[in-house]
Amino acid sequence: MSRLPTGGSLMRRAERTNWIVIVYHWSPLPPKPNGIADYAAKLNMALSQHLDLVCVNDNPFSEVPPGIQVIDPMQAWRDAPADVLPVYQIGNNPDHVGICRAALEWPGLTVLHDLRLFYLYEVMGLGPAHFEAMLIDSNPIMARVRRDAIIRERRKIASDYVCFDMTGDLLRRSRLVLVHSHYARTILLRHHGAAYADRIAVLPHFAIEPAAAPAADMRARLGVPGEAFLIVTSGFATRAKRFDWVAEAVAGLVARGHDIFWVHAGAERPAEFDLSGLITGCSRLAGRARITGHVSEADLDAWLAAADIVLNLRFPSVGESSGTLARAMALGRCCIVTRTAAYDECPEDAVVKCSPFEPVAALDRALCALIAMPEARAAFGRNAQAFARTHLPVGAFAGRFADLCREAVTRAPPGAALLDRPVAGDRAVLGSFDPVAMSAAALDARMPHAFVPARLEMYQDGPAIRVEAIGLDVAKADEPRAMPT
Questions:
Q1: Distance CA 23, CA 150 (A)
Q2: Residue 134 lies in a domain
């Protein structure tokens, strides 16, 4: 079911000057506890000045600018005019499953907040053959090694989330793709080819400067003890944010007599990373660390404003950018990042960068120096705030975003999605079956390994029915699957 308009209305309208684009914006929105929801809410405020904007969300009480309509996804499919441009915010979590499916069916402008997207496709509910096809399309060599463990044994390892880049279908189906760093664009082109070079745009993550009370007032309101040196981390507690490094570095500082307090302003994901267990397992962090759980934007701003140091570590990075880093820079905080991926694109005088090699030692050195030199912390904070104000204002971001929307409507998507693209002549004869005894299990047992069927064709063969599958045999392998039990 494709919503790609036919005819020339998009092209004719794109030739007009001062043209207002009609945009259907698919994204999580507050009160959903999702960082991209907060991002989209801020973007909507600015975009509504440039575009004819409609928000697509299944919660009619989502937070939107005054006068902006919220419609549910089914209404968007059913009632959208032919010249609407869909815009999709794609992150790597279950809140984006429906949005990703829509992006593959109805091509538009896709904003990729994460590369790889392995976890998104993992929770999308694809059948084993479809997921296998995605693995093979992403990384044929590793797929041969890992596909049985991932699909049949449900046994994944951390490197799977880095080795398999599942963004190919979105690139094939999008009119334009927007990423927030040159690193992300480089990785996509390296993996998927230079043919996409004119379809991937870079627009650095915007920063909004919150109104904040003096840091001393924030510390008092939030209960930070005494004159403690406050280190703040934020967002969902995931393994890639390297809290193991943070805990070891902070514990080392405490052991040497520093008055340190560490606050994580965000929610835990215990199944992915047990941050509470890490903290309680380190005796030196007793009374020196706190996890707030999910916080409102106002409270997040308060924690960031109160911080002496904001830590925003990532390793490994899969090309993501950090909205909380941009927010902390806009607040004039001294920030420490990992010298990797998009974070290495920050100016050297605006953030402190630590190597991911011997990371605890590097982090310890940086923290010790910044604790001893408050004037250095202040200088990094001033430079960060100046960079955020001049290079990351949301108004300029929205203007450029609107220009990309106008460009996107003039383009057709470059290709079909992997799972919708039968290959000419790719046909597997499953065999002849008794019409009474024929079943889905019997057909599946005859399906060649790694064959992704697009449709089945049936022919009369005497008293039997001959069944052939037409589809995409990614691996070109002919070994049969194991008989189902």
A1: 38
A2: no
The phi and psi torsions of 195 (rounded to 5 degrees) equal -60, -20
Structure tokens that stand for 232 in this block: 């703040």
In the numeric block, the tokens 């004719």 are attached to 12
The pair of structure tokens assigned to 235 is 């967002």
Q: How far apart are CA 105 and CA 352, in angstroms?
A: 43
What pTM did the predictor assign?
0.80
Total domains in the chain come to 3
Alpha carbon distance 465, 107 (integer Å): 38
- Tokens for 440, please give them: 């889905």
Cis peptide before 31 (omega within 30 of 0): yes
Q: CA 473 → CA 136, 173, 453, 483, distances in Å?
A: 10, 20, 8, 19
Task: Express each pLDDT in 79-137 by its tens digit.
Answer: 888 889 999 999 999 999 999 999 998 999 999 999 999 999 999 887 787 888 889 88
Nearest to 177 by CA among 468, 436, 411: 411
Query: Is 464 found in the same domain as 408?
Result: no
User: Which of 241, 247, 234 is closest to 367 using CA atoms?
Assistant: 247
Other beta carbons within 10 angstroms of residue 463's beta carbon come to 8
Strands 309-312 and 176-179: unpaired
Q: Could you tell me where the DSSP H helices lie in 409-458?
A: 440-446
List C-alpha distances in Å: 357 to 245, 283, 312, 322, 394. 11, 26, 16, 21, 34
Whether 14 is in a domain gets the answer yes
